[in-house]
Cyclic Di-GMP phosphodiesterase RmdA (Streptomyces sodiiphilus), 276 residues
Amino acid sequence: AEGGNRFAVADPDSDARAISRHHLTHHLPAALKGCEFFIEYQPLVKMSDGSLEGAEALVRWSHPRHGVLGPDRFIPLAEHTGLIVPLGRWVLQEAVRQACEWQVRGIGARPLRVNVNLSPRQLHDPDLVQDTVAVLEEAGLCPSSLCLEVTETALIRADDRELRPLRQLADLGVGIALDDFGTGYSNLANLRRLPASTLKLDRSFTQGLQQEPADPVDLKVVEGIVSLAHTLNLSVTVEGVETSVQAAQLRELGCDSAQGWYYARPGPPEKLPEAV
Ligand code: C2E
Ligand code: CA
Ligand code: CA
Ligand code: CA
């Protein structure tokens, strides 16, 4: 079409990468108003018996021109502009409503839990506690059926004032998970001052356990982290479980819950009941 003896290879991936940050940033507010975001849910599985325990809510942007964009493409931009606060509130509201629906339908052996990611910026939102309580009350969801995931990096940087809202929510029964644990170089003794109930071990720690025999150093490291977490009364969830070998090793090491492609990929809410 361009004339001459030319050809071009269309690569949707690199096309997507080429959409400018400026363009995306500019369209975020309208996308939120226009309901272009949707949530996929990835099952959380209890390791001792393989039962469905809950799901993590993962947001996506269905861009009218560029297709479905993953959160890594737009969450940092939303963080930067502050739009993460209303976007995060929408995710929370939608995920809590969904959890309620699953519970009413009796999905899972116990009441299902929903995990929602919280950006560092949301920790500074003065309405965080009030909004979260209002969302739970409006939906009629028990606080213990909600878990907020905050990255280890965000939490270790937080001072006592910034931790206060999380502590208030934890006191109400909301679970707090330390996300991507192991990537933030926590001072381990410092873990005691955080209002966390769960430690989510980053995928990078479980990669060495994909093959048999497992990397012996990785085994020892995970074993050590699990033992430390349990000493501090934290449960351990492992991310990025992709193989049955990995799942077996991690169960053996005493991990409490797991999430990963081995069990199920993130998917629409209708898929959750039959996902595991
Ligand atoms: P995350 O919280 O660490 O979420 C886990 C990511 O790992 C997800 O990527 C998930 O699709 C992917 N994953 C799950 N199982 C496997 C596996 O077995 N193997 C591999 N290789 N990957 C796996 P996703 O959905 O692209 O999300 C990326 C990040 O975006 C999340 O990382 C989270 O930090 C952020 N995010 C997602 N939704 C929200 C949200 O609503 N609010 C905020 N603030 N951040 C969000
Ligand atoms: Ca997460
Ligand atoms: Ca994570
Ligand atoms: Ca991760």
